[in-house]
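Study this one:
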Amino acid sequence: MSARRTLGFSWPALVGLAALAAPRVALHDLDVVPEGTAMAALLAVGPPLVWVAAVLWRRPPRPFLTLVVVGALYGVFLAIGHQVFWDPSLGMDAPGLAGVDPGAREGLLRASAAVSSLVTGTMVGVIAGGVAVLVRRLMQATERRHDAG
């Protein structure tokens, strides 16, 4: 089964939607955009809102699954970004695991960061998917009331 038929978008489009959230990783890890600012909020919330809008516009057969997939792809971008920007953002100043060989410590922390990134991205997709399903149902209910009235 093709992605377009199941998810409503081609794989390149799904990757493109996920990539909208990728700049936040670099900007956050390099401390270009400080946490707590309006720009940080826009970078965190803007892409998932675009994902929801795209799903509402295209009306894929399984909007929740579509955005879970986009979120998982974002998790891949997040994991790669954190690995690429590891030294500038954390380096060997990483906390915890005192007494563990520095190489082993870095390996464990990097692996943990990668898993955490995949889970985080997927959860962003789950939340966006839930919002999309809820908004879609509200829109359908409004259309039914309008048609009945």
